[in-house]
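Sequence only, no structure available. Ideas?
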Amino acid sequence: MFRLNLKIALRNLWKNKGYTFINIIGLSIGMASCIMIFIFVRHQLSYDQHYAKKDRIFRVTSYFKYADGEEYQNGVPRPLGPAMKNDLGMLEEVAMLQGGGGIVKVMDDAGKLRLKSSEQTFYVEPEFFKIFDYKWLEGNPQQSLSAPNTVALSEEMAEKFFGDWHKAVGKTINYQNKTDLKVTGVFADVPENSSNPIKIAIAYAGYVNKNLKKWGSVSSSSECYVLLKGGADVADLEGPKNAFIKKYYVDQTGARTDHFFQPLTDIHTNDIYGNFARKTTSKSSLAGLVVIGIFLMITACINFINLATAQAVSRSKEVGVRKVMGSMRKQLIFQFLTETFTLTAIALVIACALTEAALPGMESLFKENISFSMLEHPVIIVFMLSMVLIVGFLAGFYPAMIMSGFSPALAIKNKISIGNSGGGYLRKVLVVVQFAITIILITGTLVILKQMKFLREKPLGFNSSAVALVRVPMDSLSVLKYEGLKIRISKIPGVISATFCSAAPSSGDNNTNNFSFGKAEDADFNANTKTGDEDYFKTFGLQFVAGKPLSKSDTIKEYVVNETLLKKLNVTNPEDAIGKLMSVGGGFRGPVVGVVKDFNNMSLKEAISPIIIVSQKTRYENIAVKMDSRQIAEVSKHIEAVWNATYVDYVYSSSFVDDDINAYYESERVMGTLFKVFATVIIFIAFIGLFGLISFVAAQRTREMAIRKVLGATTMELVGMLNSSFLLMVFFANIVAWPVAYIFISKWLSGYTYRISLSIWPFIVAMVLSMTITMITVTLRSYRAARTNPIDALKYE
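Reply:
I predicted one. Tokens follow.
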């Protein structure tokens, strides 16, 4: 029976080539889009799922509550790990992780330099490998990283440094031109879908930092991971944690500082805390993609239902004959569903080919290695089969019920018309829904693009154009060469100014510290601290509202603050702050010499922080060089040559501040591109469906138009008659779409502290665009129908 139905289905699909083509195109494009969305979302949600104890692993994060705001951060004070290990009995393991990077040098057996490269590194406590089940190929994590100046390498790094990972253990690598690290272990490469892609793990016992015992200093590169004891609930940690905070944050006023336990599997999809040296994809972005995928399939299914119910009239005689010959209704339903599933299966095959073709572009957009291997990920097969079943049933069931329900007497007498074939009102509703979805995406795309333009063009309060950040080594011998390097770079033609600093005014690498102002007690909020020399303000174009820049100094001697810090201190006149004594982290107490106009120190999703800028030579990580924008390429070559001549043992590395700032909005860039692509796809699917639908409607109304023409109706009047109903449906679709689009767009914009005001223009543009395309699409087909000779339609009547 199935074989016979399949044969009949293929014959009918071949007979109605136009109908088949339109449906296959719509379904295959929609399914291909859904498959691409699925494999990307699956990849993002797979992060950290491979760890056996993932449900018990948490990252400790920091939270700062101020009188007029709050701040979240992934970093923690460096003494927090040992204190939690000692005080919180529900924790089975606690491990500190310190991110960083530097120069790694490998010598050959003869003592000659074999390799020199700049690598990301992590100082890791041995307990980290009790929490995370890394596969060790050689060595023991509890012994290999227990002593200072030891290092464990991933298989990839071991082979890069020594040619064969089997030869790595026992060898030595040099780190930062000052420390020899003995290789004591090799572990298997960490999967790409891991939040901690560690390749070089240095023993934490050898980590040196002046803030190791300071509770008031938090760096985004300093993290803490914990493993709950089996059977324990993280909610039960709330009481012990509060007692812990009262014990160690004795100098804070009120509940200023808190810590949360963030689930491991939440890290990759939650960017509220910031993530040092990690790429994240927010849950809202993933949810947006899922919604787009659902919209695509709904649009394709609506096409199928509309075309199938419209085509029902032309198949009424077939149904009547089959019923007279004894076919039961359920047999007819099964036959029509077989046609639908056959068409859907064909569309799936084409969708797989389209997905394979689009995969390189998708990987380039997302900057991720995305696998479409069904053998490697069987869940993809399950998804595709589920999609065929769901789409086939949703798209085919209603048309099958309509067509199988025809009266055989009326069908054989050719008395079934488009009006009484069933589904007329439903078709109109579905057209409205289809175009409402299209209009929502068009409106959303216009708003996203406008917000992105706003983010790119909004003044940040400093000049980031043509400023290069060049990494400088921070060891004591290299620091001695800073002054000479700056002088030589400043003399390069095309260099406007240069400054040593920890980071640009706006940076993802931030340090938060407690401070005092005007009195010995700490203020009731923390400040974002930045280091820069006396030329920092000139290089980045920071404007002073009071006072002057920092004087030339190798150590902290003076302070410059921003307007926000003074507002939080209730200092209304910036001049009143000049000369007031300040101390950061309990350190040197010196005067405030300047107040700079507020600038955005993080992305425009966040409010401006209170900021303190100091000079401290040992904290400089970069030299920022402001260049003539017309000579960037040539100047960059000269800077690299001077740098390499100064630091022959190191590796040159640089980036442009504008590029770093644009990286803040990578998620928005991707979403903007996706909305443009998928809005175009949905428009295409909707309008090929509309073209098919108007074709059937025009065919069914051929005699009506012929009679009207004989009675004197002009071609344009007939075109207007066919157009009016579709334009009315699209108009109603706009009325339905506007409030829905407004809710979604307002919700999305609320995630930005700085955002565009939502005007009516995106909605108007979406309406004009949708109605214009509808009018063009319907007119093209209805004009041809209206031009036919009425004699051809009426000669058999």
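The chain has 24 helices and 24 strands.
Hope that gets you unstuck.
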